[in-house]
Amino acid sequence: MRMYLWNGHTPMRDGxxxxxxxxxxxxxxxxxxxxxxxxxxxxxxxxxxxxMGEGIGDCFSLFFRWRPEEYDRDTIFxxxxxxxxxxxRLFPYAYNMTINTQTYSVINGGQYSGVHAKGCVxxxxxxxxxxxxxxx
Length: 136
Known about the structure:
By secondary structure, the protein is mainly alpha-helical. The chain is 46% helix and 6% strand. The protein has four helices and four strands, in the order E-E-H-H-E-H-E-H. A two-stranded antiparallel sheet has the order 1-2. Strands 3-4 form a two-stranded antiparallel ribbon.
């Protein structure tokens, strides 16, 4: 797992202390192993596949953070809010589409060229359309 010091704060914050990042990075190992098997660890490294891998990592982080007694459809989640001090994705994860306006139709837009931006779209799809259907 690649863990870093975040220099947006004084003192710097260690990603090893951010549960969301730890779970996100661990999920890469799980999703890559499930998709590519032990002999193809680069199967989700770029493009749409890389975006799906990032989205799966974010979703794992959200799922493990979820507490039904504390959160509901109005809860807004950020990624790396401890380490970065605020979210590191283009939009926070929210069921309310006025807060997170992403749909699959935006994934080919200019600001979605990187795997993390594509992953934000994939996680939004999974989070909104599947998680709330099954858990709320």
